[in-house]
């Protein structure tokens, strides 16, 4: 990931506020962290830019391991972790899917 693309505090606060009402749409279960799962996350973020995921009780990975795995293997940024829920952000490449990134870039 390019260092200059890291979100600043103000941008993270905005994204956390936007994510407040979202429901988790992906979860980490006993199948764990895989490339296929990462590809699904990337696809969902291309359409939404901001999603929540949660770790099921059966997940063998910890929240910290999940965060590191996502950020090491993709350009997705973990904006927030709350308990077993992670808020993920990745700017969409298609203009019609850019709901949050134009605002984030202006900040």
Automatic annotation (TrEMBL):
<dbReference type="InterPro" id="IPR001890">
    <property type="entry name" value="RNA-binding_CRM"/>
</dbReference>
<dbReference type="GO" id="GO:0003723">
    <property type="term" value="F:RNA binding"/>
</dbReference>
<dbReference type="InterPro" id="IPR051925">
    <property type="entry name" value="RNA-binding_domain"/>
</dbReference>
<dbReference type="Pfam" id="PF01985">
    <property type="entry name" value="CRS1_YhbY"/>
</dbReference>
<dbReference type="InterPro" id="IPR035920">
    <property type="entry name" value="YhbY-like_sf"/>
</dbReference>
<dbReference type="InterPro" id="IPR017924">
    <property type="entry name" value="RNA-binding_YhbY"/>
</dbReference>
<keyword id="KW-0694">RNA-binding</keyword>
<protein>
    <submittedName>
        <fullName>Ribosome assembly RNA-binding protein YhbY</fullName>
    </submittedName>
</protein>
């Amino acid at each position: 990931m390019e260092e200059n693309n890291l979100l600043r505090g103000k941008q993270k606060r905005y994204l956390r506020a936007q994510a407040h009402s979202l429901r988790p749409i992906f979860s980490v279960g006993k199948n764990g962290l895989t490339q296929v799962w990462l590809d699904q996350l990337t696809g969902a973020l291309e359409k939404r830019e901001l999603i929540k995921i949660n770790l099921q009780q059966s997940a063998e990975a910890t929240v910290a391991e999940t965060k590191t795995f996502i950020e090491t293997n993709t350009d997705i940024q973990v904006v927030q972790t709350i308990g077993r829920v992670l808020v993920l952000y990745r700017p969409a490449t298609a203009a019609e899917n850019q709901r949050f990134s134009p605002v984030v870039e202006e900040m």
